[in-house]
Write a structure and sequence with these properties.
The structure is a single chain. Helix content is 35%, strand content 20%. With 261 residues, it is an alpha/beta fold. It has two domains: 149 residues, Rossmann fold; 107 residues, Rossmann fold. It has a six-stranded parallel beta sheet with strand order 5-4-1-13-14-15, with helices on both faces. A five-stranded parallel beta sheet has the order 7-6-8-9-12, with helices on both faces. A two-stranded antiparallel ribbon has the order 2-3. α3 links the parallel β4 and β5.
């Protein structure tokens, strides 16, 4: 697929964040101008991130601060997908959410009954304030048989420096300590998030393009949900290691900034 064909057949661009539009606090290249031009072409931009350490409002503020937010844009996180999943499949259940205070409050505002004493369901999100006491309590709930859900599977979170441990690393830790793995993972590449996005924005999958830097989450997500997929080499993946993955993108660019070049 060419760049021109992708632009002509896409109404909704789902944009990964870390490694795709920015690194830490820095937009990748001339990303501000690229996103502005996509909006001018009538494209809907949704920042679709597995990173569940922040709320949508926090992401909107960050994107605004670094000049990437525009009128009509939206944010959708793996935590939002987890909230939708809980509301549909575990309505009224007592839920322990291992997350930052802001994200826990997001779950509570959505009507999830938080319970840190006798939960029926445990949700593992990206808690960047994780400490041993939190890990011990979560492990005890898993050992007690609580339903186990995770927001996303990413092993690391890319930064401008050393990549940081992410939920996938925590999943490995809890598997070793409790013998448990999640019954459901809500974020990319899984179809829980795909169904949530389709309901939220109402754009057919064939007119949607997933843009991201990770083969095993972003590109697999696009392919699994019937979307077009655009791999950018501005983050984790290189042209060499992309060959090692069964899911291949429809288009590869050095960065999203090449879409109009």
């Amino acid at each position: 697929m060419t760049k021109e064909e992708l632009l002509q057949t896409t109404d909704l661009f789902l944009l990964d964040l870390d490694g795709t539009v920015y690194l830490d606090e820095t937009p990748i290249g001339e990303m501000r101008e690229t996103l502005a031009r996509l909006r001018a072409c009538g494209k809907k931009l949704v920042y679709l991130t597995n990173n569940s350490s922040k709320t949508p409002d926090e992401y909107e503020k960050k994107l605004g601060r670094i000049g990437l937010w525009g009128e009509g844009d939206a944010v959708y996180t793996s935590a939002m997908a987890a909230i939708e999943y809980l509301s549909e499949h575990h309505a009224g259940a007592r839920v322990h959410v291992l997350a930052t205070d802001a994200v826990r409050a997001q779950f509570a505002r959505a009507g999830i009954a938080l319970d840190d004493e006798t939960p029926e369901v445990c949700v593992l999100a990206y808690d960047v304030t994780l400490d041993f006491a939190k890990m011990k309590r979560f492990n005890e709930f898993l050992a007690g048989g609580a339903v186990y859900i995770a927001t996303h599977p990413d092993d690391v979170c890319p930064t401008a420096g050393v990549p940081m441990p992410d939920v996938g690393s925590f999943l490995a830790l809890f598997e070793r300590s409790s013998g448990r793995t999640p019954s459901v993972i809500c974020g990319k590449p899984y179809t829980v998030m795909g169904a949530c996005v389709a309901r939220a924005f109402g754009v057919p999958s064939g007119r949607t393009c997933m843009v991201g830097d990770r083969m095993h989450t972003d590109i697999r997500f696009g392919n699994a949900n019937g979307m077009k997929s655009l791999l950018v080499l501005s983050g984790e993946t290189t042209r060499e290691n992309m060959k090692n993955f069964p899911d291949q993108p429809d288009l590869v660019l050095e960065s999203l900034n090449e879409i109009f070049k």
